[in-house]
Write a structure and sequence with these properties.
This protein has a single domain, classed as Alpha-Beta Complex (Nucleoside Triphosphate Pyrophosphohydrolase). The protein is 28% helix and 32% strand. The chain has four helices and seven strands. It has a five-stranded mixed β-sheet, with helices on both faces. Strands 2-6 form a two-stranded antiparallel ribbon. The longest helix has 16 residues. The relative contact order is 0.24. Belongs to the Nudix hydrolase family. Pfam families: NUDIX. Keywords: Hydrolase.
C-alpha cells in the first residue's frame, strides 16, 4: 500500500459506536438493572460514550446520571462487539465495568426523564429480562469478576 497523508488515511477508516455500562451487585449477588422508559427491556446502568470520553469515565457518568450512584469503578469485565444491525448503520463496541457490590438497601434515584425503575435481580432472572446479547454479557461479567479475567464476546 502506498503512503497516504494521515488526515486522508484517518478519514478513510471505518467508524463505530461505543457504549459503557456498569455491573453493580448487592450482598446476595443480585445484579442492578435499570428499566429505561424508552425501551421495552431492562439494561445495565450505562450508555453511549461521548466524543473524546474514555469508556470508564462514560460508565461512571452514566451511572450517576441515570440513578444517582457515585461508585469508584473497578476493572473492565467484558468487551463486546456487534455488527451493524437494524437501524444502527455501524458496528458497536460495549464495555462493561465492575461497579462492585453495594447494600441492597442502597438508595437509588432514577432520573425520571430516562429511567422508569431500578432494581436488583438474580442472574437467572436477568437473563430473561435482558435482550439476548446483553444477557450474555451478564453471565460473562459474573464469570469474569470471579476469575479476574476480562471476557471478550464478539457477535459474529
Amino acid at each position: 500500500m502506498a503512503w497516504v497523508e494521515p488526515e486522508i488515511w484517518y478519514r478513510s477508516l471505518p467508524t463505530f459506536y461505543a457504549a459503557a455500562d456498569v455491573l453493580v451487585t448487592d450482598e446476595h449477588d443480585r445484579l442492578l438493572l435499570v428499566k429505561p422508559n424508552y425501551r421495552d427491556h431492562w439494561a445495565f446502568p450505562g450508555g453511549m460514550i461521548e466524543a473524546g470520553e474514555p469508556p470508564h469515565v462514560a460508565a461512571a457518568r452514566e451511572l450517576t446520571e441515570e440513578i444517582g450512584l457515585k461508585i469508584e469503578l473497578g476493572g473492565l469485565l467484558v468487551v463486546d462487539w456487534a455488527p451493524p444491525m437494524g437501524h444502527r448503520p455501524s458496528a458497536i463496541m460495549y464495555f462493561l465495568f465492575d461497579g462492585g457490590s453495594v447494600s441492597s438497601g442502597i438508595t437509588v434515584d432514577p432520573d425520571a426523564e430516562e429511567i422508569e425503575r431500578a432494581a436488583f435481580f438474580p442472574l437467572a432472572e436477568c437473563v430473561t429480562l435482558l435482550p439476548a446479547h446483553t444477557a450474555n454479557r451478564a453471565t460473562a461479567a459474573m464469570a469474569a469478576r470471579a476469575s479476574g479475567r476480562t471476557a471478550y464476546l464478539p457477535v459474529l
